[in-house]
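Pilot study result, target chain (266 residues):
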Amino acid sequence: MSCQFFGNGEQSQHRSSIEEDDQKVPYAHQSRPRKGEPEEPTSTVVLTSFTSHYVDIRINKTKHQEESHQNLETNSLGILDWAFAGVSRVTKGETPSHPSHTVWQHWLDSKSDYPARDEGDMYPQGNGEVLEKGFQKNPETGEQTEYEELWTDLDIDIIPEEGGRYSTVLKAESGDAKGLFIRIGGWCQGILKAGHDLTVERWRWASEENDPHQGLGYWKKIVRIGNGEMPSPTLFRAAADEADTAVVSGNLKWEEAPSLVDARAE
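Predicted structure:
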């Protein structure tokens, strides 16, 4: 999948994602530049639903940590490395020795309204991790550049009062505004883009933390960039329980997203 470019022309990235079909969280704990030591400047979460929708948000760790000490209600746009969302398509390898190939369609992209093609090959490793390799256009040079990303799996959280693992995808589109918000288990994040205005949020269920207003175990907002209004994670349960339920936030109606098969890359 797409990743960050470094000064030496090589690419690497750290990312985590949640797959609904196997109830695991693929988490890329290490980036792998083609040359030099592994490095990871971002905290990246990719939520992927069983309908193949995904939301990929990449936050600069150093800048975010600096702002965390300030107790800001809204983070600055400067902490965002990249955010994009859409639908992914996987083509399995013909034999176990051949990698699967994934194409990520960018329906939303913080960097461009016309993003380049985004795809990569997935190589299972002997220790359970998955190495992703691919090529992508470098926005600085305009040249195709090779990248690598390394993934491993974590379990999906179950929120006690729900008794199961929930996967909900909400989509909004009106005029020049469009957004995609995904919740899977104890992760929730979304992107809203309206013209040049961008809003990005990431939430995590904090099962072991105590909030003075909410008690032990609550939805903790990890990142909030921009001024747009997006659904709260607490509203996702209603949308999951009733397929026809729409969530209204601000001037937008967020509804259960269809499969978007027509939007998938060829």
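One observation from the pilot: The first helix runs from residue 61 to 68. A full batch analysis is planned for the follow-on phase.
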